[in-house]
């Protein structure tokens, strides 16, 4: 998406060889107009597969999920909750997600009643790097007996293995911008 | 707001005398159409004070913040991040927030560069009970030298002291629905 690529080029910062800082418009301060356009872009890409629910994980996925859900005709959003501990009751679907950024393992979970059996689910997240979060979200959908109709990602670090992992599992992955590398603190970006 | 009151009456559940469960449309599963209307209602209430930024706290405040920001003409959203630990660098504004729900103290923080001096800030959150989160958000704005033009709350538990606390501090508080009590598991609600 042209506007997202421009925002990354203009405002994004690379640190070292693999840290991408885009929190001035994507995941701390949110560029609202950009989020509206990203939601529309996901709807354009996935509406033909008739999504019924947009699933994301707290916190920064929520903005993209709701603008996408609006553009898909106001379908509901469900966001998985993160917690360092395992849930012991049986009323949730739960998956383990390792965060390379923070070096910790989280459990993500969704109340069973909000992910009904047979639902067509569009998974959305702001970032794709190693693919742990997206894979965990798809796992929750599979546990529920639902169908992942696609995975929509705002910014993909295409020099990390997330996309390959998701595609190997059979998921349709669309990202709106790809960061291919970092050269002298400058992010290399393509659509 | 009529639609929100209806959703609470129809779907909300009270537990004991003070636990309100509305996560089927407000803070786990999100009713997208309702969020769009809540954003519009906040814009209707606060646009005359010319908000430049919508400030909220992760995670469940983000959906209301972005629909409000859209209705205010696509102004940016900033969300404070929660952490159990104090930040030791000087590049953030930070406030302590006690969570009565979880019985823990969190620190909420915002990068200084995303809350510029003099900005007119609309604070938005999904819930108001004891007012800790909203008060912490207002504190961040005050630290930055900005102005809190108002506090917009989706659901207020009006039998708890949050509103009074915020009003005593001089803030303009608008909530879209008030839960006045719980009788036999049924939520008592008014606009």
Q: Give the C-level CATH assignment of chain A.
A: Alpha Beta
Kindly report the average pLDDT value of chain A: 95
State the secondary-structure class of chain A. alpha/beta
Number of helices of chain A: 5
* CATH hierarchy: architecture of chain A: 3-Layer(aba) Sandwich
Number of domains of chain A: 1
Unreliable segments of 5+ consecutive residues of chain A? none
User: How is the CATH topology of chain A named?
Assistant: Rossmann fold
State the helicity of chain A in percent bands.
25-40%
Strand order of the largest sheet of chain A: 6-7-5-4-8-9-10-11
Shape of chain A: globular
Your description of this structure?
Two copies of one chain form a homodimer. The first copy, chain A, is α/β, with parallel strands linked by helices and 191 residues long. Helix content of chain A is 29%, strand content 38%. Chain A contains five helices and eleven strands; from the N terminus they run αβββαβαββββαβαββ. In chain A, the strands form two sheets. An eight-stranded mixed beta sheet of chain A has the order 6-7-5-4-8-9-10-11, sandwiched between helices. In chain A, strands 1-2 form a two-stranded antiparallel sheet. The longest helix of chain A has 15 residues, at 32-46. The N and C termini of chain A lie close together (6 Å). At the A-B interface, β3, α2, α3 and β5 of A face β3, α3, α4 and β5 of B. β5 of chain A pairs antiparallel with β3 of chain B.
